[in-house]
Write a structure and sequence with these properties.
Blueprint lengths: L4 H4 L1 E2 L3 E2 L9 H8 L10 E2 L14 E3 L11 H13 L4 E6 L7 E2 L5 E6 L7 H9 E2 L2 E6 L16 E4 L14 H13 L4 E3 L4 H4 L9 H18 L1
Parallel strand pairs: 1-4, 4-5, 5-7, 6-8, 7-9, 9-10, 10-11
Antiparallel strand pairs: 2-3
The structure holds iron/sulfur cluster.
Protein backbone atom coordinates (compact mmCIF):
# COMPACT_ATOMS: atom_id res chain seq x y z
CA UNK A 1 0.00 0.00 0.00
CA UNK A 2 1.29 3.47 -0.81
CA UNK A 3 0.88 6.67 1.12
CA UNK A 4 0.12 10.04 -0.43
CA UNK A 5 2.80 12.65 0.16
CA UNK A 6 0.11 15.31 0.59
CA UNK A 7 -1.03 13.50 3.76
CA UNK A 8 2.49 13.85 5.17
CA UNK A 9 3.35 17.37 3.98
CA UNK A 10 0.73 20.09 3.54
CA UNK A 11 0.93 23.12 1.28
CA UNK A 12 1.06 26.56 2.81
CA UNK A 13 1.01 28.92 -0.14
CA UNK A 14 2.47 32.08 1.38
CA UNK A 15 3.52 33.21 -2.09
CA UNK A 16 1.46 32.64 -5.23
CA UNK A 17 2.94 33.25 -8.66
CA UNK A 18 6.06 32.27 -10.54
CA UNK A 19 8.08 33.34 -13.56
CA UNK A 20 9.89 30.06 -14.27
CA UNK A 21 7.31 29.04 -16.88
CA UNK A 22 7.26 25.23 -16.77
CA UNK A 23 4.88 23.96 -19.47
CA UNK A 24 3.33 21.39 -17.09
CA UNK A 25 2.63 23.88 -14.24
CA UNK A 26 -0.60 23.03 -12.38
CA UNK A 27 -0.30 26.06 -10.09
CA UNK A 28 -0.52 28.41 -13.08
CA UNK A 29 -3.53 26.57 -14.53
CA UNK A 30 -5.34 26.59 -11.18
CA UNK A 31 -4.53 30.25 -10.56
CA UNK A 32 -6.03 31.18 -13.91
CA UNK A 33 -9.03 28.86 -13.62
CA UNK A 34 -10.01 30.06 -10.14
CA UNK A 35 -8.68 33.59 -10.61
CA UNK A 36 -6.59 33.39 -7.42
CA UNK A 37 -4.40 36.36 -8.42
CA UNK A 38 -4.50 38.61 -11.51
CA UNK A 39 -1.16 37.68 -13.04
CA UNK A 40 0.65 34.41 -12.20
CA UNK A 41 3.89 35.90 -13.59
CA UNK A 42 3.84 38.52 -10.78
CA UNK A 43 4.24 36.64 -7.48
CA UNK A 44 2.29 37.98 -4.50
CA UNK A 45 3.05 37.51 -0.80
CA UNK A 46 0.09 36.68 1.46
CA UNK A 47 1.56 37.89 4.72
CA UNK A 48 -1.61 37.18 6.75
CA UNK A 49 -1.12 33.43 6.20
CA UNK A 50 1.99 33.52 8.41
CA UNK A 51 -0.36 33.19 11.36
CA UNK A 52 -0.91 29.56 10.28
CA UNK A 53 2.62 28.84 11.50
CA UNK A 54 1.60 29.67 15.07
CA UNK A 55 -0.43 26.46 15.39
CA UNK A 56 0.96 24.38 18.23
CA UNK A 57 0.10 21.06 16.57
CA UNK A 58 3.25 20.06 14.63
CA UNK A 59 3.01 19.86 10.85
CA UNK A 60 5.27 19.38 7.81
CA UNK A 61 4.72 22.22 5.34
CA UNK A 62 5.72 22.82 1.73
CA UNK A 63 5.93 26.59 1.28
CA UNK A 64 6.47 26.69 -2.48
CA UNK A 65 3.53 24.69 -3.85
CA UNK A 66 2.44 27.65 -6.01
CA UNK A 67 5.71 29.54 -6.39
CA UNK A 68 9.46 29.13 -6.76
CA UNK A 69 11.75 30.30 -3.97
CA UNK A 70 13.84 32.21 -6.52
CA UNK A 71 10.83 34.47 -7.18
CA UNK A 72 10.38 35.46 -3.54
CA UNK A 73 11.49 39.00 -2.65
CA UNK A 74 14.28 39.05 -0.11
CA UNK A 75 12.15 40.87 2.48
CA UNK A 76 9.41 38.19 2.16
CA UNK A 77 12.00 35.49 2.67
CA UNK A 78 13.42 37.18 5.76
CA UNK A 79 9.99 37.63 7.30
CA UNK A 80 9.15 33.98 6.67
CA UNK A 81 12.50 32.78 8.05
CA UNK A 82 11.94 34.79 11.24
CA UNK A 83 8.55 33.16 11.66
CA UNK A 84 10.01 29.70 11.03
CA UNK A 85 12.59 30.31 13.76
CA UNK A 86 9.75 31.13 16.18
CA UNK A 87 7.94 27.87 15.39
CA UNK A 88 10.33 24.93 15.77
CA UNK A 89 7.40 22.51 16.23
CA UNK A 90 6.99 22.40 12.41
CA UNK A 91 9.24 21.40 9.49
CA UNK A 92 9.26 23.61 6.39
CA UNK A 93 10.26 22.73 2.83
CA UNK A 94 11.19 25.03 -0.03
CA UNK A 95 11.75 24.13 -3.68
CA UNK A 96 13.35 25.97 -6.55
CA UNK A 97 14.26 25.36 -10.17
CA UNK A 98 16.50 28.44 -10.29
CA UNK A 99 19.07 28.00 -7.49
CA UNK A 100 21.43 30.05 -9.66
CA UNK A 101 19.36 33.12 -8.74
CA UNK A 102 19.64 32.52 -5.00
CA UNK A 103 22.34 33.55 -2.58
CA UNK A 104 21.80 33.33 1.15
CA UNK A 105 22.79 31.59 4.33
CA UNK A 106 20.57 30.36 7.12
CA UNK A 107 21.06 28.41 10.33
CA UNK A 108 17.41 27.34 10.61
CA UNK A 109 17.16 23.77 11.93
CA UNK A 110 13.64 23.16 10.61
CA UNK A 111 13.94 24.52 7.04
CA UNK A 112 14.71 22.23 4.10
CA UNK A 113 15.93 23.66 0.80
CA UNK A 114 15.53 21.69 -2.37
CA UNK A 115 15.73 21.73 -6.13
CA UNK A 116 13.58 20.01 -8.71
CA UNK A 117 15.44 17.97 -11.32
CA UNK A 118 13.44 16.53 -14.21
CA UNK A 119 16.27 15.43 -16.52
CA UNK A 120 20.03 14.84 -16.65
CA UNK A 121 20.69 18.28 -18.12
CA UNK A 122 19.29 19.83 -14.92
CA UNK A 123 21.68 18.13 -12.49
CA UNK A 124 23.59 21.44 -12.26
CA UNK A 125 20.77 22.61 -9.99
CA UNK A 126 21.99 20.35 -7.18
CA UNK A 127 25.48 21.89 -7.32
CA UNK A 128 24.02 25.40 -7.51
CA UNK A 129 21.83 24.71 -4.48
CA UNK A 130 24.78 23.54 -2.39
CA UNK A 131 26.90 26.52 -3.49
CA UNK A 132 24.34 29.32 -3.29
CA UNK A 133 22.17 28.29 -0.35
CA UNK A 134 24.12 27.61 2.80
CA UNK A 135 21.65 25.69 4.94
CA UNK A 136 21.43 22.74 7.32
CA UNK A 137 19.04 20.56 5.29
CA UNK A 138 18.85 19.83 1.55
CA UNK A 139 16.50 17.76 -0.57
CA UNK A 140 16.04 16.97 -4.26
CA UNK A 141 12.79 16.20 -6.04
CA UNK A 142 13.22 14.22 -9.27
CA UNK A 143 9.77 14.90 -10.67
CA UNK A 144 8.47 14.50 -13.27
CA UNK A 145 11.50 12.46 -14.30
CA UNK A 146 11.80 12.63 -18.10
CA UNK A 147 15.12 10.86 -18.70
CA UNK A 148 17.87 8.85 -17.03
CA UNK A 149 19.83 11.17 -14.71
CA UNK A 150 22.72 8.68 -14.62
CA UNK A 151 25.35 9.08 -11.89
CA UNK A 152 24.24 11.83 -9.50
CA UNK A 153 26.34 13.56 -6.85
CA UNK A 154 24.05 13.42 -3.81
CA UNK A 155 26.70 14.44 -1.29
CA UNK A 156 25.14 16.39 1.56
CA UNK A 157 21.57 15.74 0.42
CA UNK A 158 19.19 14.67 3.21
CA UNK A 159 16.17 13.39 1.27
CA UNK A 160 15.16 12.62 -2.31
CA UNK A 161 11.71 12.29 -3.83
CA UNK A 162 11.04 10.57 -7.15
CA UNK A 163 7.88 11.05 -9.22
CA UNK A 164 6.48 10.78 -12.70
CA UNK A 165 4.27 12.84 -14.96
CA UNK A 166 0.67 13.12 -13.81
CA UNK A 167 -2.51 14.26 -15.56
CA UNK A 168 -3.38 13.88 -19.24
CA UNK A 169 0.25 13.69 -20.40
CA UNK A 170 0.95 10.71 -18.11
CA UNK A 171 -0.40 8.43 -20.83
CA UNK A 172 2.48 9.29 -23.15
CA UNK A 173 5.26 10.51 -20.84
CA UNK A 174 6.39 7.99 -18.25
CA UNK A 175 9.32 7.60 -15.88
CA UNK A 176 11.29 4.41 -16.56
CA UNK A 177 11.47 2.11 -13.49
CA UNK A 178 15.23 1.70 -14.05
CA UNK A 179 15.80 5.44 -13.52
CA UNK A 180 13.92 5.34 -10.21
CA UNK A 181 15.81 2.23 -9.04
CA UNK A 182 19.15 3.78 -9.99
CA UNK A 183 18.45 6.97 -8.02
CA UNK A 184 17.24 4.92 -5.07
CA UNK A 185 20.38 2.77 -5.02
CA UNK A 186 22.62 5.82 -5.22
CA UNK A 187 20.74 7.51 -2.36
CA UNK A 188 20.71 4.40 -0.18
CA UNK A 189 24.47 4.01 -0.60
CA UNK A 190 24.72 7.34 1.23
CA UNK A 191 21.95 6.46 3.74
CA UNK A 192 19.65 9.07 2.22
CA UNK A 193 15.93 8.30 2.62
CA UNK A 194 13.96 7.98 -0.62
CA UNK A 195 10.29 8.65 -1.24
CA UNK A 196 8.55 7.38 -4.38
CA UNK A 197 5.44 9.43 -4.96
CA UNK A 198 2.14 7.58 -5.14
CA UNK A 199 1.87 8.31 -8.88
CA UNK A 200 4.63 5.75 -9.41
CA UNK A 201 2.47 2.82 -8.26
CA UNK A 202 1.36 1.88 -11.82
CA UNK A 203 5.03 1.91 -12.89
CA UNK A 204 6.82 0.47 -9.84
CA UNK A 205 4.09 -1.81 -8.46
CA UNK A 206 2.70 -2.04 -4.95
CA UNK A 207 6.10 -2.55 -3.24
CA UNK A 208 6.77 1.14 -2.90
CA UNK A 209 9.74 2.77 -1.18
CA UNK A 210 8.37 5.70 0.82
CA UNK A 211 10.91 6.82 3.40
CA UNK A 212 10.74 10.14 5.18
CA UNK A 213 13.52 11.93 7.08
CA UNK A 214 13.47 11.41 10.85
CA UNK A 215 12.46 15.01 11.48
CA UNK A 216 9.30 14.59 9.36
CA UNK A 217 8.46 11.26 10.99
CA UNK A 218 8.81 12.90 14.40
CA UNK A 219 6.28 15.56 13.39
CA UNK A 220 3.87 12.87 12.14
CA UNK A 221 4.25 10.90 15.38
CA UNK A 222 3.58 14.01 17.45
CA UNK A 223 0.51 14.69 15.29
CA UNK A 224 -0.81 11.20 16.09
CA UNK A 225 -0.28 11.72 19.82
CA UNK A 226 -1.98 15.12 19.55
CA UNK A 227 -4.97 13.63 17.69
CA UNK A 228 -5.30 10.72 20.14
CA UNK A 229 -5.33 13.04 23.12
CA UNK A 230 -7.98 15.18 21.46
CA UNK A 231 -10.24 12.19 20.79
CA UNK A 232 -10.13 11.05 24.45
S1 LIG B 1 8.61 26.36 -10.91
FE1 LIG B 1 6.75 25.42 -10.08
S2 LIG B 1 5.32 27.12 -9.80
FE2 LIG B 1 6.92 27.84 -11.19
S3 LIG B 1 6.16 27.46 -13.27
FE3 LIG B 1 7.38 25.67 -12.68
S4 LIG B 1 5.91 24.19 -11.79
FE4 LIG B 1 4.90 26.24 -11.83
Amino acid sequence: MSICIKDQIQNMNLVIGCTVGCPYCYARNNTRRYHIIDDFEKPQFFQGKLRMMEKKKPQNFLLTGMSDLSGWHEEWREEVFNKIAENPQHQFLFLTKRPDLLSFETDLDNAWFGVTVTRKSELWRIDALRSNVKAKKYHVTFEPLFDDPGKVDLTGIDWIVVGTMTGAKSRTVKTDPGWAYSLTEQAHELNIPVFWKEDLVPIMGEEMIQEMPDAFNKVLEEQRIWNNQKSK
